[in-house]
Amino acid sequence: MTRRFTVLGALAVVCAAVELVAGRGMSPGVVWDVLNGGGDATERHIVFQLRLPRLMVALGAGACLAVAGLVLQSALRNPLAGPEVTGVTPGAVLGAVTATALGLAGWDSPLAVVLAACAGGCAGAALLWLLAGRGRGDPAQTAVHGVLVSAVLGGLTAMVLLVEPGELGSVVQWLVGTTEGRVWEHWHLLWPWALVWGAAAWLLAGPLTLLRCGDDIALAAGLSVRRARTLALMCAVALTAGAVAAVGALGFIGLLVPHLAVAVFGADLRRSLPGAALTGAVVVCGADAVAQLSSRLLATALDSGRLTLPVGALTACLGAALLLLVVRRTPGRTF
């Protein structure tokens, strides 16, 4: 297990290094010179005030989404219970967009965005909880109701756009998911939020492991199922809201990364929760590095200096392809 964490940590370092040198405007040699104390004022500003906070936000947001997904899947005993399909992510997006349209929040006031996204995420999760009713433990029913809730919340977001069309740019950033333009203020707001709620999720590792075994076994072990599930959902919503407020709705991170973490680190959540955080950080950081490299190649090929591929578009495409591959290779499995 120690070796697995070490390998994943080394992979995170590699992805971080690639992301630092992947952006346009500076060669890898110049970036390396700046990191060694050289470079002019402009180059140091680009590396330390633009690229480094972007890297840190990508790592933190990936960890938040992966842990939130694993907590949701464990609490609901549902392999499809990711933030994307349980109303949490679209609700958080709706909350952030609505607050921005009303002038209560914006990219220049990230604290207000976090609070609005958290309120929206709680509303989305509550709506799914009400619709699923007694059948919320059934993976198929939860998935169907999750799609319904996501569609409703997406429609409400579109209505906000109709009322305030001037907010189209910020809405697209939240809907697609991007790390473009993140600065140290976003990181300083994200890391304590992620640390507090991530620690709370880890403290719930024991109850969550029992919940994965079924309510009857959890009750026989003396666990208060309702209380443990409520606390777990609160952690998942808070982690998702923090990530959405920082980078928008990155698709499939909270749905697929938990499965990878459990496969690598086992079903004991005391190990798989930190493993999921590290795996999510690696996936988002790596995807952001690939997105930046792809943007450079496309800009060169199309002779367009302003072409940017958002990381959310890349994670959505790759995640959808991976999910389709898994479903086709295991047609007899109940998801």
From TrEMBL:
Belongs to the binding-protein-dependent transport system permease family. FecCD subfamily. The chain crosses the membrane at residues 55-73, 85-105, 111-131, 143-163, 190-211, 231-256, 307-327. It is found in: Cell membrane. It is a multi-pass membrane protein. This is Iron ABC transporter permease. PANTHER family: ABC TRANSPORTER PERMEASE PROTEIN MJ0876-RELATED (PTHR30472:SF25), FERRIC ENTEROBACTIN TRANSPORT SYSTEM PERMEASE PROTEIN (PTHR30472). The keyword Transport applies. The keyword Lyase does not apply. InterPro entries: ABC_BtuC-like, ABC_transptr_permease_BtuC. It comes from Streptomyces erythrogriseus. Keywords: Cell membrane, Membrane, Transmembrane, Transmembrane helix, Transport. It comes from the Bacteria.
